[in-house]
Specification:
By secondary structure, the protein is α+β, with helices and mostly antiparallel strands. It is built from six helices and 14 strands. The protein has one domain: Deoxyribonuclease I, Chain A. The strands form three sheets. It has a six-stranded mixed β-sheet with strand order 3-4-2-1-14-13. The longest helix is centred in the middle third of the chain and has 17 residues. The radius of gyration is 20 Å and the shape is globular.
């Protein structure tokens, strides 16, 4: 029999959001939203083509995503897997922006958003950040008739003249449905559609190099869901072009341990989501990490799962962990 009451110790506590470095003047957060579809945008239109099957599920999904996106205190948010339904007041991106609060705005890049059901987007806090010039989307090469065209926008923190360009991309997944020819699994460990991801990466690098250069631009951040692990072709192409994995620059892996991953597949952790900084921008990097808010949590806790969770909790708000990057501009 125990001689005193037992003392329980939490061996694996849930982590707090990454602390913002004192020198950070700009925090960028990247998250795959896990198919944020808002029906008809008026409370109806469910089940949506993807994501929520009912209005109640959507309310849970949106509330938990807002908690996740707000907690680290970002100035810019890069998102993937948001419904490709325009930029009107009933669109999914408009509803997400409104739920984040009065200071938030979304970048209207409404031309050439592609023919996929989902797209990439950018949001920013208008009281902290200025969007400089207009946004661009790549609608040539592999993105001419299909895919999810990347979006680019230049920002600078208020009170600073230094600016950076943020490019948000979401490459084709490894799922093999419809794969033909060189997109079939080549048994090289990269899964299906490796060829398409390689061609898309080459196109993104060419396009990024061709974008207008302004006098106050200090560098470029390419971020988003690359659907590729670090040793696969897209990341190798990025490295050869001079783009540095910000998280690994500050949190290197070794033979035993590799922290700050962003995705878990069949029990194995890896990274699909990245902050890739140009060589010039790397000099302004002061922080980079992931926040283990989703992939370590059981799927049963997500907004469609059977386990009830308070609506304002961030845990398992998506199936990817966010990447958070800090700059001193």
């Amino acid at each position: 029999q125990p001689l005193s009451p037992p003392v329980f110790q939490r061996a694996n506590p849930r982590p707090d959001p990454p602390a913002r470095p004192d020198s950070s003047t700009l925090r960028v957060m990247t998250l795959n939203l896990g198919n944020l579809f808002n029906g008809d945008g008026r409370g109806g239109g469910f089940p949506a083509p993807r994501g929520a099957k009912s209005g109640k599920q959507f309310e849970r999904q949106l509330a938990r995503l807002v908690t996740t996106l707000s907690a680290p205190g970002p100035d810019i948010i890069a998102v993937t897997e948001v419904e490709n339904d325009g930029y009107g007041r009933h669109s999914a991106i408009a509803e997400l922006t409104g739920a984040l609060g009065e200071h938030w705005r979304y970048v209207k890049a409404d031309s050439n958003t592609g023919n996929d059901a989902i797209r990439t987007d950018l949001l920013y806090r208008s009281d902290r950040v200025t969007a400089q010039g207009s946004a661009s989307r790549l609608a040539a090469g592999p993105f001419r008739h299909r895919g999810r065209p990347p979006v680019a926008q230049v920002f600078h923190p208020k009170g600073s003249n230094r600016a950076l360009r943020v490019v948000v991309t979401h490459l084709k997944s490894k799922a093999c449905r419809g794969a033909e020819g060189p997109d079939r699994d080549q048994n090289d460990g990269q899964g299906c559609y490796s060829h398409s991801r390689e061609q898309a990466t080459r196109a993104i690098l060419r396009w990024t190099d061709s974008l207008p250069q302004t006098g106050n631009l200090v560098g470029t951040l390419i971020t988003g869901d690359m659907n590729s692990y670090a040793r696969e072709t897209p990341l190798q192409l990025m490295a050869r072009a001079g783009y540095i994995n910000a998280v690994r620059r500050l949190h290197a892996c070794n033979r035993i341990n590799c922290d700050h991953t962003s995705y878990r597949y069949r029990g194995r952790s890896g990274t699909l989501d990245y902050s890739l900084v140009s060589e010039a921008l790397a000099g302004y990097l002061v922080g980079a990490s992931t926040w283990s808010v989703n992939t370590d949590e059981p799927r049963a806790l997500d907004y469609q799962g059977p386990v009830p969770v308070d609506g304002d909790q961030p845990w398992r708000s998506s199936d990817h962990d966010p990447v958070i990057t800090d700059f001193s501009l």
